[in-house]
TrEMBL record:
Belongs to the UPF0162 family. It comes from the Bacteria. This is Tetratricopeptide repeat protein. InterPro entries: SirB1_N. Pfam families: Transglut_core2. Residues 38-183 form the Protein SirB1 N-terminal domain.
């Protein structure tokens, strides 16, 4: 089974094998990897984590779990510019640093194994976690509790002081949504690193995992443009045009399509 098919098969399990699916995404970019070996590393990490957890009810162990990861030097990658390795879960196990989503995926896997209730929250700009029924969220990078005011401040630091916090920002998300976000992260980082073929793999996976938005099609159109593939670029521009409601951007997309159609070589 190829890595992408294996990833999708993991999501079809009940419950979905989320962390293993993320490992198969890493295999797409690093074919020498063996997910079974990496899962054995998680087995060992699970033992270290469990030994340091306090004797509390399972629903109170999510924050101690995250703090144990911090004690073991798992932390957010603050390298600038950020590289694709920050979004690959196999390298998180090796380097002990990564993006918030990557850290969250590991925390969710450990919580599942230790029967600690924990959910992912697709918060804009900084993936978060929550215990079902709790009045706060948790930062996967530190275990810090985030209440409504903290979430609003985090959102405004990311997107500006006039950004409004919405109830939809605080809802739990499903495994496909998490892997789609992981794929978008990787697509962006591979584009930033000038690795268009790797970025194209991620862009295609984004569309396989769920509904694509305007930006997803524009991002893939730009990758196709870089790879000198006008047919693919035109397809994604047409999809973007269908999803676009903003008049100025619609005009720009139409002009780009006309220029592309006038090109003598479509392949």
């Amino acid at each position: 089974m190829d890595p992408r098919a294996a990833c999708l098969a993991c999501l079809e399990q009940q419950p979905p094998a989320l962390f293993e699916a993320a490992l198969w995404i890493a295999v797409e970019h690093q074919p020498h990897l063996h997910p079974a070996d990496l899962l054995r590393q998680v087995d060992s990490l699970q033992q270290h984590i469990a030994q340091g957890l306090p004797n509390l009810p399972a629903k109170e162990l999510a924050q101690p779990l995250l703090r144990r990861l911090t004690e073991l030097n798992f932390h957010e990658d603050d390298e600038q510019p950020l590289r694709p390795q920050a979004a690959l879960v196999n390298l998180l196990l090796q380097r002990r640093c990564g993006q918030p989503l990557t850290l969250a995926l590991l925390a969710l896997e450990l919580a599942r194994r230790l029967e600690i209730p924990l959910q992912g929250v697709n918060f804009p700009g900084h993936f978060l976690l929550r215990v079902p029924g709790a009045d706060h969220l948790l930062d996967p990078c530190s275990g810090r509790r985030l209440y409504t005011r903290d979430c609003r401040e985090l959102l405004q630091r990311q997107y500006g002081p006039h950004t409004e916090l919405s109830a939809s920002h605080l809802l739990p998300c499903d495994p496909r949504s998490m892997l789609q976000r992981l794929s978008r992260n990787l697509r962006h980082l591979h584009q930033q690193a000038d690795e268009p073929l790797a970025a194209l793999r991620d862009a295609e996976r984004v569309l396989l995992l769920g509904s694509a938005n305007l930006h997803d099609h524009l991002a893939r159109a730009d990758i196709y443009q870089q790879l000198d593939c006008p047919q693919g670029e035109r397809f994604d521009l047409q999809c973007a045009l269908l999803l676009c409601d903003e008049p100025t951007q619609r005009l720009q997309l139409s002009q780009r399509l006309r220029l592309l159609s006038a090109s003598p070589a479509l392949h």
